[in-house]
Amino acid sequence: MTSDTATQAQAHAQRNDAPAPEAEPTPWQRRLRRFGYADRPRATTAERLIAPFPEPGTRLWAALGLGPGTADRLVRWSGWGGPLLVALVAGLLRFWNLKSPNAVIFDETYYAKDAWSLLQYGYEGTWTDKANNAILAPHQTIPLSSDPSYVVHPPVGKWMIGIGEWLFGLNPFGWRFMVAVLGTLSVLMLCRIGRRLFRSTALGCLAGGLMTVDGLQFVMSRTALLDLVVMFWVLAAFGALLIDRDKARARLAAALPDTHAGLGARPWRIAAGVFLGLATATKWNGLYILLAFLVMTVLWDAGARRTAGARHPHRTALRKDAGWSFLALVPVAIATYLLSWTGWFLTKKGYDRDWAAHRQGLSPDHILGIPLPQINMTWVPAALRSLWHYESQVYDFHVNLVSPHTYQSNPWSWLVLGRPVSYFYESPKLGQNGCTAAAGCAREVLGIGTPLLWWSACFALLYALYRWIFRRDWRAGAILCGVAAGYLPWFMYQQRTIFLFYAVVFLPFLCLALAMMLGAILGPRQATERRRMWGAVGAGTLVLLIVWNFIYFFPLYTGMTIPYSSWRARMWLDTWI
Fold first, then answer.
1. What is the pLDDT of residue 25?
2. Burial class of residue 241 (count of CB atoms within 10 Å of its CB; 0-12, 13-18, 19+)
């Protein structure tokens, strides 16, 4: 940490927690020193509470022929310069030919039109059966009526899509614009989050670079669906909680030797509550992540108090921190969720908007599928009772959605990319849409991750599990928490119709896990040059293979016209067809 608060905290704590004089080495340690072993310097409590950012070296820039002054400036700006450069590359890729395919692909047929309806009425209206053709026609017509329609997802993601339509109109570029913006910004956030998590700009940029070349995140950044919006807000919440963790530990270090001190105002935790509310107000799976992150932050506080020397850290954290954590996250998220329905509240024509008006103040008859006794609830605003009823209907829809779909998949297969989703497919003949192959061509947008990245991430998760269980590495635990919160809840709904692209929500944490494993392959700073050289060869080779894999599948991510034989060669597994 480089802030003044952290520096003052370290100085204060060092006065109260000076390291003990070095003990005499044991015979075994003296024997090891003959082979180059060196004892680790003993850290103070403050240093254990606040891991500093290592001072980056300038040797690389000097080797490139830059002077000391220029090298120092580049190093000083690399914390933001590196992430911004990675995000620039990500943005150029995601905005390239964004309007292609010039079609309403997969579930864009719901969300692009619902977003436009929200702009017009504040709620989702009704479209005619052939609305897609009318929207894409050379002389566009918009066959939208104000009659309310029943929709099964909250409005935030559709409002985000609607911003692009407000700027550029109801067309493929317009409805994909904001998703591409969020996909690019999520890369920037991941670089900065990785930098803070690992205390390494290089590893942070590596994590963001890996997500830049992941096929699933790339496709989802170019398609007007909701799941990437959920991922963006979840990642923002995780980043806010990381900042809150650092600042809280700095305050605790400044209060030493008092290990029971309050941690003061925590605005970043409140910000995380807002972000998690926005995630849940996009799709309900954000709720599971809210609960997981709440537990994670309480455990972080307990860990900080243990490091500070508290005799009963978990008891102290529960008494001093857990209640405030709950208030900063859960009520804030609920308030944010309700505010997201403002357009529905302000109108009288939204679906089920006046349901409570005909109930004489009686409560809804069930919630989340559980029957409830009918009681008088006139003290609850009618609009909230109507929303309660509407949301109960939506819950029943989600848990009972078992209609077979060609591209549905079981969550057991997601990490190995067992069954991707085809968003768009055409078979141009010779001379059509740029086809130059006599045997015909294929044109597809396939929602699939970069295979080598995902398959490598499976091993990275095992490494993170090892780090968390056997090395008690909190960073590995945080990464695993993000993966588990976005992934494991789907195993409760294996009978439901679900798809691989839901996994984009926990993809950033897979990239963090893989960056962590690659950092271990590279080796620690104090390793010998030979060890670091071979580590760099191994890690660099894997990264280059992942980049090559992304380039190889690029035609399938962007709907480019390629010979049918080339398309078939990319179907590595029969389940991808």
1. 65
2. buried
pTM: 0.90
Residue 174 in tokens = 């317009």
CA distance 457 to 99: 31
Phi, psi dihedrals of residue 360, rounded to the nearest 5°: 50, 35
| Adjacency order of strands within the sheet including 421-426 | 421-426, 441-447, 561-563
Give dist(CA 484, CA 167) in Å, integer. 37
Residue type, 545: L
Identify the pLDDT of residue 3: 47
Strand-pairing partners, residue 127, are: 144
The one-letter code for the residue type at 237 is A
Q: CA 23, CA 154: separation in Å to the nearest integer? A: 62
Instruction: Please identify which residue in the block is written with the tokens 């995902």.
Output: 454
Q: Which residues on adjacent β-strands are paired with residue 497?
A: none
Q: Give the integer Cα–Cα distance in Å for 200 and 307.
A: 22
Give 512-527 pLDDT, tens digit per residue.
999 999 999 998 877 8
* Rounded-to-integer distance, Cα 494 and Cα 475, Å: 30
Cβ–Cβ < 8 Å for 544, 226: no
Distance CA 376, CA 359 (A): 10
Hey, where are the domains in the chain?
366-400, 401-576
